[in-house]
Each structure stands twice: as C-alpha cells, then as structure tokens.
Amino acid sequence: MPYRVRNVFGNLAAGTYGVTVVDGLGCTTSMVTQVYNQNGSNASTTVSASTCNQTNGSITVVVVGGEMPYDFDFGGGSQSNNQTNVGSGNYLITVTDNQGCTTTVGAIVTNIGYLSATAISDSTSCGGINGSITVTATQGTPPYSYSVVPGQNQTSNVFTNLGNGNYIITVTDANGCVTTAQATIASISIVSIVNIIPQDVSITGGNNGSAIVTVGNGRVPYSYVYTGGAGGQGTISSPGSFVIGNLFKGTYTVTVTDSKGCTTSSTFIITEPSCGVRAGVRVTSAISCNGGSNGGLQVTATGGSPSYTYTWSNRR
C-alpha cells in the first residue's frame, strides 16, 4: 500500500504485518509486528476414559483468553465446562465467550477394559450330573474370576459336574468390569441295545451262527465286546446295527460302550440242531432168484438236521 504521513493504522485484522518508515533523506527502516485478537480465546481439554464399556468417562474444558463468562456446547446446548457420564467416542466442543467470540476444541474419550465372554457346554451322559461349561473371556484386564448361576464361584474358566439346565456365567476382570454369557446343558439319552436277532447254527457242531445287534442313543462312535465262544470286539460309527458272526452253540454277552464311556449289556443264545435223527427202511423190490442182487431198499430219515447223507453195508 502507499506511504502515508499518519503513523496510526486502524481496522486491521489479527495477523502479522511489516512496517516501513522513510525519513526526509529517503533513509528507510523496517520492522515486523503481529496484531493479536485480544477478545479471542483458546481452549484445551482434559479427558478421563470410560471403563467397562459404560458411560462413565469425563471431559473438562480449560479456556485461556477471551472474556468470561464462557458458554460450552458439547452438541446438546449450553453446558458447563466439566462433563461427566460420558461414553467413548469423538466430541467437538464449541466455546463462546461474553463477547460472542467462539472457538472449538476436540476430545476423544476411549474405553478401558471392554470385556466379553462366550461359553461352550458339554452335555450330561449316562444319566449322571457330569455336564460341563467352558468360558472364554476376551479383552478386559486379566486375571478373570468366574461364577455360574445356578452353581459355584471359582477362578477356573471350566465348570464341571453340572446337571441339565440353563446357566448364566458371570465374568469379572481385574478392573471390576463385568460381563455375562449363557449356556444350556442338555442330556444325552443313555446308550442302549435296542434289539438282538440271533441266527442259530444250522448243523450240529457247526460255527455258522450269528447275531444282529442294534444300538441306539448315547454318543457315537460305539465300541463293543462280546464274550462266549472265542469272544471278539469291534467298533461302529453311527447308531444302527452290526453283525457278530462265526458263532458256535452257546450263551453270549455283548457289551456296548459309547464315546462318553457309558455302557449297556445284553445276553443272547445260539442253538444248534439236536442229534435225534431217526431212520425207517422198507423193501422196494425183492430178489427175484436165489443168489440174485436185484433187491432194493428205501430209507426215510427224520429229525436231526437236514440235509441227510446215506451209506449202506452188507451184513450177511
């Protein structure tokens, strides 16, 4: 701008200005100065984090400059400079002084100690009170303590010897933050031998007997053993039937065990035909001449175990 005689400059906005002075001989000197806004204000914040995922944080705004009193707007109208019961999040506070001058300041409230938990249950078996619940706590601040309703309090995250029912597990961390998880323990029906169909030996002294054993309930896979005769064992991967073969005449006991260790037993009998075979003989043709060999006999067999075989001998 052009030089002027008057040494007072007015209507200046806040900022940095350079001033040059020229005397009557044309000599010059320069200087830099800054014009401040005396009515302006600067604000800063002090933040306390929320804990346990609750709205218990705080924000305090400190103002320097401007003209008191100040008005503070946290987004919900005129408020004080100290806000409590604040949840985690980003906040923008507008400060207005008595002259109507405004400034803004931001604040970030974090959450300390957010805690969550999940629970996995294992069903009861064998008709007993032997269910379990395993709890996994995440985040928060270890160590954790655990309690279950209905049930006991403990430091371990595994609850055992539980009966059927619905459970609420409470987890507390080192900061006193609390969360809950739910689990249901169901009952598995006791493993059972539903049916046994024996197939008897077909010939006396044979070993072609068998038994079809049908198993249900419990938890797969199953294992089985049978006693009697030579005995034996095996496994079955799903509810259904299995066959025990190559059995002689006798009494057998089969025991089935499921994957939870529950057992059931049943007995069956394999029989064989008796040896009460009987035979009747009749002459079908007489010898026509003395010394001849054209006679005939017919043998009828009954009882015993068909089919029959025959032999003959001359007993003169």
Please explain how this structure is put together:
With 316 residues, the chain is mainly beta. Among the domains are: 42-112, Immunoglobulin-like; 118-185, Immunoglobulin-like; 192-270, Immunoglobulin-like, CATH 2.60.40. It is built from no helices and 27 strands. It has strands spanning 15-22, 28-35, 41-48, 50-51, 57-65, 71-73, 78-79, 82-86, 89-96, 102-109, 111-112, 115-122, 131-139, 145-149, 153-154, 158-162, 165-172, 178-185, 192-199, 209-216, 222-227, 232-236, 240-247, 250-257, 263-270, 278-285, 296-302. The strands form 9 sheets. A 4-stranded antiparallel sheet has the order 7-6-9-10, with no helix packed on it. The model has no long low-confidence stretch (mean pLDDT 85).
In short:
This protein has 316 residues and is an all-beta fold.
Largest sheet: 4 strands, antiparallel
Going by helix content, strand content and strand pairing, the class is mainly beta
The largest sheet has its strands arranged as 7-6-9-10
What is the strand content? over 45%
Mean pLDDT across every amino acid position = 85
- Fraction of residues in helices? under 10%
CATH T-level fold name of the domain at 192-270: Immunoglobulin-like
Total strand segments: 27
Global outline:
rod-shaped
Going by CATH, what is the homologous superfamily of the domain at 192-270? Immunoglobulins
Number of helices: 0
Order of helices and strands: EEEEEEEEEEEEEEEEEEEEEEEEEEE
CATH architecture of the domain at 192-270: Sandwich
Give the low-pLDDT segments. none
Distance between the termini: 163 Å
